[in-house]
Amino acid sequence: MVNNYVPPEHVKPRLISKGLVLEGGGLRGYYTAGLLDGFMEQGIDFPYIIGVSAGVGMGCSYVSRQRERNLDILVNYREDPRYLSFRSYFRTGNLFGLDFIYGDIPHQYVPFDFKTFGASPSRFITVCTDCNTGEAVYYEKDEDILTVMKASAAIPYISKMVEYKGTKLLDGAIADAIPLARAIEDGYRDTVVVLTQPKGYRKKDELHPPAGLFYRRYPRLADVLNKRVAAYNAALDLVEAEEAAGRALVIRPSSDLGVTRMEKSVKKLRDLYELGLHDSKKTGAKL
């Protein structure tokens, strides 16, 4: 198991009285992993953390105090076909090997510290999308964290739905890609928002199967998927408005390394992690 990180004695713990909002972005989430490991080094904690998709996976290791756990997974398992491959898709129905990533890895290969995670005083919320209603569902950390984490990362079209407590779930980013509004609703007017795209990014229409056909048994999900681009850009508008008002500290990659959601290059992902680590030093001084 990756041991719990304890900052050096000269580093004073700092509880930042803001909500932390973590965007997803597939493997671009390794920026978030580096950033949060840097926060750990600086003794920075938050009372409230809400994440989507990859943001949940990176955020969990932050709450469990397992610095470099996500880096360990990257170095040792990104090129494993069980992690991401067409072989995984044809065998399991998931392009990303969700059962491997959220089952075998945390239980066997790079163990997750459930005890420290559960004992943390920080509130931790995972965002998923209910396939029947098309609405976001928000799960607290006392739920089956690996199952809801898997559901939050189940990208539409290339993943099977994840059933949890009788509800079929998919990627939280479908219904609430940047859950800043939820953090505000939960009482955190001041926030730190971590994005995985550079400043100025706006989502454009993507090529994918017609949602109405692919998810014809789930018309409300299909409707939300069809409006996803507009909803994401509206969420960015809110982020920028809160940033301009001085209520949100927004952290974005300081350089565009051209990393994709399904990036193949371990080196590029390692560089992205290091960029997050670098950016954490600049940001930590502002908190």
Automatic annotation (TrEMBL):
InterPro entries recorded: Acyl_Trfase/lysoPLipase, DUF6363, NTE, PNPLA_dom, YjjU-like
Residue span(s) of domain PNPLA: 20-184
GO biological process: lipid catabolic process
Motif (GXSXG): 51-55
Positions of short motif DGA/G: 171-173
Renumbered ranges of motif GXGXXG: 24-29
Active site: residue positions: S53, D171
Keywords assigned: Hydrolase, Lipid degradation, Lipid metabolism
PROSITE patterns: PNPLA
One Pfam family recorded for the sequence: Patatin
Any one GO MF annotation of this record: hydrolase activity
Entry annotated with the keyword Lipid metabolism: yes
Top-level taxon of origin: Bacteria
Protein's UniProt name: Patatin family protein
